[in-house]
Write a structure and sequence with these properties.
The complex is a heterodimer of chains A (235) and B (269). Chain A is mainly alpha-helical. Helices cover 68% and strands 8% of the residues of chain A. The longest helix of chain A has 29 residues, at 67-95. Chain B is α+β, with helices and mostly antiparallel strands and 269 residues long. Chain B folds into two domains: 21-54; 57-261, Oxidoreductase, molybdopterin-binding domain (Sulfite Oxidase, Chain A, domain 2, Alpha-Beta Complex), CATH 3.90.420. Chain B has helices spanning 2-15, 23-53, 68-84, 136-140, 168-174, 201-204; strands at 122-125, 131-134, 145-152, 158-167, 185-189, 196-200, 210-215, 218-219, 229-231, 246-250. The longest helix of chain B has 31 residues, at 23-53. The two termini of chain B are 44 Å apart. Classes of the chains: A mainly alpha (235), B alpha+beta (269). At the A-B interface, strand 1, helix 1, helix 3, helix 8 and helix 9 of A face helix 1, helix 2 and helix 3 of B. Chain B: It comes from Mucilaginibacter celer.
Chain lengths: 235, 269
C-alpha cells in the first residue's frame, strides 16, 4: 500500500532551489573578477604545478574587460546569497530541522559506512532518518562554507571597514584564497551532489520539489513497528 | 506544505466535497501543484535574469556603461558603506622589509612618457575662482609622511608597497584650503586630462591619504606618476591617480575615468 511520507518542508525546498541560480551567478560573476588577473597557481619550491585555465579558454569565451560587469553582478547577488542563507539557517533552527541535519556523535563513523555502501563495497547502509550520516556531514559543511564565503567575501570587499574580518581570515591575501578555495568546494560538492541525486532516483528527487516521498508499505508485524518507533525516539 | 495543503482544501471543496481522496489522487494532486509552481517560479526567475542581463545601460554621465539596475545597486551599496565609514579605521601598515622592491604598475593612461618636473605645477582650483599654482619643491618642504601598506587592485592582486609624500590633510591645512573641505568631493586630473578621478571628501581627508612623491624612498619614476600621485589606501588602486595636474572641489561627483568604464564610483575599501 502506498503511503505519503513528508520529507522536506516548503521553506527548505525553496531556499534550496533559490540558492542554485544565485550560487551559479555568484560563481560566474566571481570568475569574471578572477579572470581579470588570473594569478592563482599551485606552486611548490618555485615549480608551478597547476595554473588554472589555458589561454584558449579565455579566447573562446571573450573573457577580458568584463571585470566591472563581474563586480556589479557579484555585489548585487551577494545580498540574495546572504538573505537566502540566513532564511534557511533561521528556519532550520526555529523549526527544529537542525536535529535531522547536524552530524551527531555516530555520524563520522557511519559516514564511512555510507561511503562504502555507495561504492558497493558494503552491503548494508547504516540506519538513517531524513539524511544519512554522510549527508549530515556534507550538508552541514556546505552551510558552514556558505557562511565562510560571506565572511571572506566581506573581508575582501571592504578590508578597511571590516578589518576585524580580515584579521579573522588571516589577512587580506589569505581571505582571497579562502574565498576561492570555497568556490572550488562548491563545484566539487555540486558534482557529487548531482551524481548522488541521479543514483538516489526519482522518489528522492521529487521530495525536494513536492516535499514528500511515496513509500510502498507492506503490512508488518506490530512488533516491528514498535521497534521502529523506539528507534526513532532514540535518535 | 501549508500552501499545498490549503490549495488541496480549496480544490477538494470544489470538486469532491464528500469523498476522501485516495492516496494515488493525493500524490498526483500534490505533484501537479508543486511541479507546476516549480516550473512557473523557475520561468519567472529565468525571465527576471534575462531582464537584468539585457537591461539598458545607464545614460552616459559621470558614470557609464553599467546596466542601469546594477548601477543603482552599486550606488545603494555605496550609501550603506559610507554610513559605516570611519576615518578612525586605519589601513594596516607593514615593516619596511616587506615592501616590494619592484612596484607593480598597470596602466600608463595620463602618465605616458616623461614629464618636465621643473616646469610641472600643481593647479588647485579654489571655490572662489582663485587658482593656486604649486611647484614640487613647495610640496616637498611640507612634513613628509611615509606609509607601507597593502596596495589593492580591483583586478584582485595586492602588493605591499612603500610610499612617501605629504598627507592630503596637511596639504589642505598648509595652503589654507579648509573652506574647500566643506565640499563633498575632490576631483583630480592629469596634466593631459586623459586620466581623472573623483574622491569623496572623507576618504580624501583620511589620515593615510597622501600626495606621494616617493616610492621606496626614491623620487617617483614616470610610470608611477612622477612627480606627484595620489596614494589613497582606503580605495582600490583605480582611485590612486598618477601624475596629478590639477585639483578641484565640488558638491557633485567629479568625472572619473573608471566610473565611466562601468566601475563602482566609490570604489572604497
Amino acid at each position: 500500500m502506498k503511503v505519503i511520507k513528508e520529507k522536506h518542508p516548503l521553506l527548505m525546498r525553496w531556499t534550496h532551489w533559490v540558492n542554485f541560480p544565485i550560487l551559479t551567478i555568484m560563481i560566474w560573476s566571481g570568475l569574471l573578477i578572477y579572470w581579470a588577473n588570473d594569478t592563482y597557481t599551485f606552486s611548490l619550491f618555485g615549480v608551478t604545478f597547476i595554473r588554472f585555465f589555458p589561454q584558449g579558454f579565455y579566447d573562446a569565451l571573450h573573457i577580458p574587460k568584463r571585470l566591472a560587469e563581474g563586480m556589479a553582478f557579484h555585489f548585487l547577488f551577494m545580498w540574495f546569497f546572504a538573505l537566502n542563507g540566513f532564511l534557511y539557517v533561521a528556519y532550520t533552527i526555529i523549526s527544529g530541522q537542525w536535529r535531522e541535519l547536524l552530524p551527531n556523535r555516530h555520524s563520522f563513523k557511519e559516514a564511512w559506512q555510507v561511503v562504502l555502501h555507495d561504492l558497493h563495497i558494503r552491503k548494508m547502509a547504516p540506519p538513517q532518518n531524513k539524511y544519512n550520516a554522510a549527508q549530515r556531514i556534507a550538508y552541514t559543511a556546505i552551510i558552514v562554507m556558505g557562511f565562510g564565503s560571506l565572511i571572506t567575501g566581506l573581508a575582501i570587499y571592504k578590508p578597511v571597514q571590516f578589518n576585524y574580518l580580515v584579521w579573522l581570515c588571516g589577512g587580506y591575501h589569505l581571505a582571497r584564497i579562502w574565498h576561492f578555495v570555497l568556490t572550488i568546494g562548491y563545484v566539487l560538492f555540486f558534482l557529487v551532489h548531482v551524481v548522488q541525486v541521479v543514483l538516489a532516483g526519482w522518489n528522492n528527487f521529487r521530495s525536494v520539489i513536492s516535499g514528500f516521498e511515496v513509500i510502498d508499505e507492506k503490512p508488518q508485524p506490530v512488533i516491528q513497528i514498535e521497534n521502529d518507533e523506539t528507534n526513532e525516539k532514540a535518535e | 506544505m501549508k500552501l499545498t495543503k490549503r490549495l488541496n482544501k480549496v480544490f477538494s471543496k470544489k470538486k469532491a466535497p464528500k469523498k476522501e481522496l485516495t492516496v494515488e489522487q493525493k500524490i498526483s494532486r500534490r505533484n501537479f501543484i508543486s511541479f507546476g509552481s516549480f516550473l512557473a517560479l523557475g520561468s519567472a526567475a529565468y525571465g527576471g535574469w534575462r531582464w537584468l542581463y539585457t537591461s539598458p545601460l545607464e545614460k552616459k554621465g559621470i558614470t557609464a556603461q553599467a546596466h542601469a539596475p546594477l548601477r543603482a545597486v552599486l550606488n545603494t551599496n555605496e550609501k550603506i558603506v559610507r554610513g559605516l565609514y570611519s576615518n578612525q579605521n586605519l589601513v594596516k601598515t607593514y615593516p619596511k622589509g616587506m615592501a616590494a622592491k619592484t612596484v607593480r604598475h598597470n596602466s600608463d593612461i595620463g602618465s605616458a612618457g616623461l614629464v618636465d618636473v621643473e616646469a610641472w605645477k600643481l593647479v588647485v582650483k579654489k571655490s572662489n575662482g582663485e587658482m593656486l599654482s604649486i611647484g614640487i619643491d613647495e610640496i616637498m618642504k611640507l612634513p613628509k609622511t611615509e606609509i607601507i601598506y597593502d596596495f589593492k587592485c580591483v583586478e584582485g592582486w595586492d602588493q605591499i608597497s612603500h610610499w612617501g609624500g605629504v598627507k592630503f590633510s596637511d596639504f589642505i591645512a598648509h595652503f589654507k584650503l579648509d573652506a574647500e573641505t566643506a565640499f563633498e568631493y575632490v576631483g583630480m586630473e592629469t596634466p593631459d586630462k586623459k586620466y581623472y578621478v573623483g574622491v569623496d571628501m572623507p576618504s580624501a581627508m583620511h589620515p593615510q591619504t597622501l600626495l606621494a612623491y616617493e616610492v621606496n624612498e626614491k623620487p617617483l619614476p614616470p610610470k608611477h606618476g612622477a612627480p606627484l600621485r595620489l596614494i589613497i589606501p582606503v580605495k582600490y588602486g583605480i582611485k590612486n591617480l598618477k601624475r596629478i595636474g590639477s585639483i578641484n572641489f565640488s558638491n557633485t561627483r567629479p568625472r572619473d575615468y573608471w566610473a565611466e568604464q562601468g566601475y563602482d564610483y566609490y570604489a572604497g575599501l
